[in-house]
Amino acid sequence: MATFDERAKEWDTPDRIERAAEVAAVIGAAVPLSGSERAIEVGAGTGLLGLRFAGRLQELVLTDPSTGMLEVAAEKVRREGLENVRTQQFDLTADTMPVQFDLLMSLLMLHHVEDTAAALAAMRALVATGGRIAVADLDTEDGSFHTPEAEGIHHKGFDRGDLGRLAEAAGFVDVAFRTAATIEDEGRRYPLFLLTARAGEAAGTSAATG
Hints:
The protein has 5 helices and 7 strands, in the order ααββαββαβαββ. It is of the alpha/beta class and 210 residues long.
């Protein structure tokens, strides 16, 4: 079984590039951006999704547990001279950050995390109150999307209703879903959803008045 580190240099296939472009377009339509946002992509891989927003953000941090993936992403950042983008090795449920962000993005990352509730809680910790998440992943599928040797698969997609309830329990509000793309493979169709939500008031706080 090839690891993500080993697959990094061949990761950017035409299908993955097109998929990231489709999802980025849906995020761009769903999430208002002023240009002053600080954003993080978790499970960024080689940056196929996040780098499409580099010119629309004040700051972008591409994170991933895989050093190989981040090396490829960092080379793109250097090559394109993106001074507002940096890479950082980061595991969503194992690591913490001392800062919060206005926007968190991910593409096909969530099904690689065993504890979905913990992943959403970690996302809430990364996003400032009022900030947004834009999380794209597979709708529930029969297990045929991944090959048996695929690395770190913990979920056969997600039920939107169940995932929405977990997002609300983690402290998100205005939870919404839409279809972001459809992957076709060997005659099968696999829809991808986009989950968007805002980070609500943290426990023990109340909205400012006056």
